Structure formats: structure tokens, C-alpha cells
Amino acid sequence: MSNIAYAQSEKDVEVIAVKGQYLSINESNSIKTPTPIIDVPQSLSIFTADQITERGITSVGQMIDYTPGVNNSQGEGHRDSIVFRGNRSTADFYIDGNRDDVQYYRALYNVEQVEILRGPNALLFGRGGTGGILNRVSKKAQVGEQFNAYKASLNTFGGFNLELDSNIDTGDTSSIRINAMYESVENHRDFYDGERYGFNPTAHIELSDDTTVDLSYEYINHQRFIDRGIPTGSDGRPVEALKDVVFADPENNYHELEAHIYKANLAHQFTDSIKGNFSAFYADYDKAYANFYASGYDQNTNVVELDGYIDNTVRDNLILSSNMVAEFQTESFGHTLIVGADFIQTNSDQNRFNPVFSTTMDDREFFVANRPISLNGFAGVNASGESFTTGFTDLNDDTRVGLDVFSLYIQDEIEISEHLDIIIGARFDSFDIEVLNANPSAIETRSRKDEQVSPRAGIIYKPQENVSIYASYSESFLPRSGEQFANINGNNNQLDPDTFANQEIGIKWDFADGLSLTAALFENEQSSPQVADNDPATLDVIDSEISGFELQLAGQVTDAWSVSFNYSNLDGEIVDRNGGTGRSPREVPESNISIWNTYQISDVMGLGLGATYQDESFINNSNTATLPSYTRVDASAYYDVSDAMRIQLNVENLTDELYYPNAHSTHQATVAAPLNARLSIIGGF
Questions:
Q1: What is the pLDDT of residues 209-255, one digit of tens each?
Q2: Which domain holds residue 177?
Q3: How distant is the alpha carbon of residue 260 from its chain centre?
Q4: pLDDT, tens only, 386-426
Q5: In angstroms, what is the C-alpha Rg of the chain?
Q6: Domain count, the chain
Q7: Angle at 320 between CA 318 and CA 324, to 5 degrees
Q8: pLDDT band per the 50, 70, 90 thresholds, residue 496
Q9: Is 289 helix (H, G, I), strand (E, B) or coil?
Q10: Separation of CA 365 from chain center
Q11: How many CB atoms lie within 10 A of CB 234?
């Protein structure tokens, strides 16, 4: 990076350097104790705000492309969805350590850094986190700082975005920071458009030398077209001839989200070695998404089957969290002890309506796979030439969920000697859910209370200060109500939570010249609900075993050249409940490789070049449909016009590769964007 200082003073740069060295500098970060990254016995990756800007990253998915052990899933075109070490999740997302489980696309305009942890993380985060979690650390107001930063971008599809970051010094002990953004969303697919905007004021107040308060409010409004991709053919691969066909309705494929998020955090330093944190988080979300999508395809007749639905979710989350971190000695042992408690109260009303086609009196109809599909609004012509009307009139489900979760956890990082540390801890969760199935044809109320203990243990051997060799074991669980609490139907023996166990050994080595190497071997046994191959609207419970290897190399090779190299190898096997094996889990590519290089040509100019490779993987658990492997090349260049302004160009898919990065179901493979560029002006005043 150059020395451009449009939004950072010397003090800010020092803070960012510390955050690069430590995963947790305060209560908002993932590990929650002041533990150096080298002493954390699990794999993790961090993207700082500077890296996000430099690489032109505008979405969570773009970060995942350059992270080992994880890959993107489609998310049905309306939400972030990550496959953490073979486990697909739409709910293991956090903001400042608070659960952010509603399904939507998360913006990055107000984040200081993004932390991606792999392996089960139930001890600090509770249910879920079975293969990993993603935590966004938000920007906070800075006392004694006065700056205004902006970013304006335009891409080759016609989309653009504007961002503002303003810190206002209001005195010796307080400050206000305002982050805001607007984005016009466009891409290469027919009918695709959208917009989103966010507004996030924060305040920081120092009540005394030992006590601080951070307050935050965020408003989110997001609308965009939903595109669930193209079908696979008789060979089980996406049909290239259909790459330009959008299997959707221009008027009834959309996603709308409005959210209000409130956060408050109180931190108090009781003594030099004891610190306490209390946080309150409240958010309400109002989301709707409607979509038609390909559910079947006959390549011989070029006829596609379309299905669809409209889904509404109104949810509010109240999260109260507190913890105490103490550092002390007992005889010759050093301790970093964290004790915490969480309370979560969630109310979630969800309903779904299916369409009814007048020609079939069902929710599915057949169309000739032409561009465009003969579906326009609630009328059209089917593959047989018959005119029809349709509408979302058939109630599929209507559920009203009440959830109370109470948790206690304790963890001790014990320094046995200068070279040996041990981590041991456990978390107790009480998960109490009540679901009213309000469908008039089958009204019923079901409740379920699960009490689960999730242990964690690790050992870190440090032959020297800049090298650590570790081994860890951890467990997590997921109640059968799933990530989105849709229902708890089924026999009693099907209601027990799914449990997940992870074993990992690894090495971390910080080179003297600024390079950092991390390598890890892991094995994860899991049982998780996944989309059924034959009906994307339902779930199957899949038992699987995932083992793998991850490698990360990051840092400065020379004063001018920095590099980030990532490699992961995954081997998965589905374990049939009758004892059979042989199939591979969906969306688990054997190999993922990515590299990003930045080279500082001069004090005012730099270049970036990167590539990401994803091996082929199965789209479904029956292993009848496949995503082909692909390699994508990306590049960037920037020029500092002055100390307060930069011009930056980011190019994605430099070689104009046709590829299919992810899928949701057998006939829903995403068509990736062709060669595209984003021009940005970044500066401050």
C-alpha cells in the first residue's frame, strides 16, 4: 500500500497494525481474549478494511474466493451462503460477535475487518458454527480524530456505488462516526437490477479512564433481482447453450430487505488484569423474496420445468451478552480466563405461498427454454402453446417461532511454561423453541428444549516465539429446527440436535521478514440438514465426514511486494445411515487455490494480480450433477493523484472465462460474470 492518508492519521495506522497482529484487540472481535493469532489453535483468515478497498471487494463472496477451506454456495440468489469445510451455512454470520442469522447480502462499507474462522466454534458462539463462522468487526468512532473519507465506483455493467466515512471529534472524551453507502446493482444477466443503501452512525464515550461506551444504529434497505441460474443437462453439467437464458420472471423474481440494528457496548477495566464487557444488541428484519426457478430440464426437447414461491420473514433478535476476562498467576502457571453468559430472544414469523398455474392447477409448469422464457408477470404461454395465468395463492406454510437461548461458558488459556500453552473450556446452552404451524389445514404447536454442552480443548507448543505447533478438539451442535427455525416436525428420535466434532493439528510460523505461514490438517464429522436433490424446497439430513488440509502464506516478500497464497484440499464422504458409503458431499471441491500479489511500483503507483482455482464438485448429494473446475484471473492498479486522492481500477475475470462458481440445486447453476472492471476514486477531505 502507498502512504495515502485520506482517512487515517498516524494513530489509526498503529491501531490497524495491532489488529493485524492480534485477532482480538477488544470485546468486539471473535476470540474475545487478547490472544495473538499465533496462539489461537485453529485456522483463521482476516481481511482488513485496507485490503477490502485495495482489492475492490464489494461482497462477502469475493472474500471467500480468496480464503482456504471455504467456498461459496449460491444462496438462491438472495443471501450470503458459505460452505465452511464442507458444511453449507446461511446463518453462521456475526457482527461484532453478535449473531446475524437473517438471510441477506451483507454490505462491507462499515467494517474495520472481517474474520473467517474454520472449525466448530460453539464455545464462544453457541449453536451452529459447525464448519466455521464469519464475523464482521464494525468501524467505531475514534476520539481525537477528525476525518472525512469517500469512495465512488462505477463498473462496466453500469452499476455504481458511493460510500462516506466521517469521524467527528466532539471533545476530549467523545466522538461520533457516520458511515453511509448507496449502491446501484447491475450485472450481465437479463432483467438484473437493484439498489441498496445503508446508514450507520456510531458514538464513542469515555466515561472515565477505565470505562467506555460504544453506541451504534444501522439502517439497511436492499432490493435486487433474484437469479437462480441455469439447469444441467444429460451429462450432469450446466448446459452451456443456455448460459444467456434467465429462468425467471422479470416482475416476480425479487428480494426486499429492510432492517434496523441497534448495538450498545459497555467496557470496564476493573484492574490492570481484569476487564469486563457487556453488550446489548437488538435488530428487526422485514424480508420478502419471490422467485421462479428451473426445477427440471429435458435436453432432448429443450423443455424446462419452472417452480416458484414467495417467502416472507419478519424477525427480531434481542441479544444480551457479558463476559469477564482475567489474567493472573497460580504458582508457576499463567492464566487468561474468560467467563461469559449470553441470552438470546428471537421472534420469527415466516410464511410461504406457492403459485398455482391455471393449466396444471399445480405450482409447476413447462416452458420452452428460449430467451426470454414465456413468463411475464402472472401470465404466459407454456411449452404446449397454451396460455395460462398464475399467482402466489397456495399457502405452503405459515410458522410463528418463539426462541429463548441461555448460555454460560468458561475457557482458560493456561501458560504451562514459556513454550507450552493449554486451552480448555466448555459452553452450556439451553435452547428452548416453540413453533406454531398456523396453516389453517393443520394448526398445531410444537415445542422443544435442548440442553447441550460443547467442549473445547487445545494445546500449543512454541519451540520459539515466532513458531507454534498446535492440536485442538472442539464440538458444536445444531438443533433440528435448522438455521431458520422453520419447524420441528418429525418423530422424537429425529428431534435430537445434530452434533459436530472437529480435530485439527497445525503449525503457524511468523517469518522475521514479515511473512506468515499457517498449515493445518483437520477432520470433521457432521450431520447436517441440506437441500434435497429431488425437491429443492425440502431438506434431507446428511451424515458426512470431511477431512482436509489448509495452507496460508501471507505478508511482505520485499518492501514493495506483498503476497497472499491459499491452498486447501478437502476429501468428503457421505455416510449412509444403513452403513453404506461411497458418495461425496455436495459443493466440496477437492482443491481450492488462490493467490493475490500487490507490487508497489513507486510511492504513488501499484499493481495487483491474482488468480483463484476451484476444482470440480458435485451439485447434489446423489452425485448426478457436477460443477466444472475453473480458473479466474483478477487484476488491479492504482495511482495516488495526491495525498488525499487515489484512482483505482479493479478487473475481475481478466481472461473472460465462462464458468459456474456455485449452485443451489441440480438445475440451478450460477453463470459467473464475464470480464468486467470497476473504476474507483478514493479520497478524503
A1: 999 999 999 999 999 999 999 999 999 999 999 999 999 999 999 99
A2: 37-142+157-684
A3: 19
A4: 999 999 999 998 999 999 999 999 999 999 999 999 999 99
A5: 25
A6: 1
A7: 165
A8: confident
A9: strand
A10: 34
A11: 10
Task: Give domain status of residue 633, yes or no.
Answer: yes
The residue type found at 451 is: E
Q: How confident is the model at residue 8 (pLDDT cuts 50, 70, 90)?
A: very low
What is the dihedral sign for C-alpha 413, 416, 422, 426?
negative
Are the C-beta atoms of 266 and 277 separated by less than 8 Å? yes
Establish whether the linkage from the previous residue to 372 is cis, with ω within 30° of 0: yes
> What whole-number distance in Å separates Cα of residue 234 and Cα of residue 247?
18
Q: Please indicate, yes or no, if residue 152 is contained in any of the structural domains.
A: no
Distance CA 232, CA 234 (A): 7
Name the grid cell of 317.
433478535
Residues 6+ apart with CB under 8 A from 527: 498, 499, 500, 541, 542, 543, 544
Rounded-to-integer distance, Cα 305 and Cα 251, Å = 19
Residues 6+ apart with CB under 8 A from 446: 434, 435, 437, 487, 488, 489
d(Cα 534, Cα 665) in Å, to the nearest integer?
9
Is residue 29 in some structural domain? no
Q: Enumerate the β-bridge partners of residue 337.
A: 326, 412
Rounded to an integer, what distance in angstroms lies between the CA atom of residue 519 and that of residue 502?
16
pTM here?
Answer: 0.91
40 vs 18: CA distance, rounded Å: 16
Q: In a 3-state reduction of DSSP, which class is residue 240?
A: helix
Domain assignment present for residue 541? The answer is yes
CATH of the domain at 490: 2.40.170.20
